UniProtKB/TrEMBL annotation:
This is Sugar ABC transporter substrate-binding protein. PROSITE patterns: PROKAR_LIPOPROTEIN (PS51257), TAT (PS51318). The lineage of its organism: Bacteria, Bacillati, Actinomycetota, Actinomycetes, Micrococcales. It comes from Brachybacterium hainanense. Pfam families: SBP_bac_1 (PF01547). SUPFAM superfamilies: Periplasmic binding protein-like II.
Amino acid sequence: MTITPRPTRRTVTGLGAAAALGLLAACGRPEENGDGSAPASAEPIAEGPATGSLTVWAMGAEGEKLPELLAGFQEQNPDVTVEVTPVPWDSAHDKFTSAIAAGTAPDVAQVGSTWMAEFVGLGALEPTPEEISVDDFFTGALDSVTVGDTVYGVPWYVETRVVFYRKDLAEQAGITEPPADWEGLLALARALQEKAGATWGISLQPGGTGSWQSVMPLIWSNGGDVVDDQGAEFTFDAPANEEALAYYQSYFSEGISNPTPADGTTEQDFVSGAVPMFISGPWMMSAVEALGGEGFAEKYGVFVMPQKESSASFLGGANLGVFQGTKNRDAAWKLVQHLSRPEVQVQWFGISTDLPALQQGWEDPAVASNEKFEVFRTQLDTAFAPPVVATWEQVAAAFDAQIEEVCKNGLAAADALAATQSEAQSIGTGA
């Protein structure tokens, strides 16, 4: 598999400074911050095997499966003990902030990509030592651990979203190639309704928690963004953003997407053909194939997000961080270093199906042999991390609420973005 760098449209967003990946030094760090001050630095990692005890928090399925992956680390470091605590995603953020305030944070943890700037602002995370190279991580993944001009932690795994579609039903509707642009996606959705018997042409989230993740790829595709290059000012009300949100709204105003979908029916509706297209991540492959049964994998395909100025998608996943105040710092970073090896990330893919954050991991046949995964690999080159601002969780909630008004109640995109801009400015960036 050929690895090519992602063409970068915007710089790394952070708290008051920006650093393009090309400016990073030998192990991925700039020589100074944008304001002329030195970036945060970390002490070297002591040589020799890890010893002592470590506490690790990880969320959801990762927390349940991580002990299996850590068996290799403990074999290589027989004098270390690692205790993994699974944390439910829905309570994880509050659990972390409470632990940070109380001084009881774990040594190492899985950190959601939208939490990094907030936790750094709280003084909770250590900068990444020079011994851990960040050169090979996907650019968008590296963006998510870069606050100001300093790298904190490392990307652990990545995910991005592409379009799932029923190839067989598209062919029935007279379309034999996946669309490449916005107009083509809309035309395919209409054709699936009009010629292939679909109830709805495509499943899109009509507002509610996390709907910003569905809209942002269109904004990026249209050359827009919701923060400036310095991460200092919000830009929700930009014309490119209005055009993108109006396009998203058209699926609902034209009756192509369901404004009141039932929860948990995406896989069932996809397999039945009632809703033969949706946008999601790689975890949905096993879900639809298990429900569809033998031969269903041949009935559907995936394609990269359609382009306006470019094809763009949301880059999700999770990071690994070492918390300030750890009593076993060297062992904590040795664990992070172990989990950042390509072969270990490929092993983790085999256990969890989480996609490697290291580009080298995608050269392994276990990942590269599936043509559908190759589409995800292509999309990762043009996938963007969410804004790295400390207040993003609050701002995103305000944006979600306005997206719902657009999709369900017909609010004009310009008005929704003006309202979001006003609220975002009131919240601030946390800088």
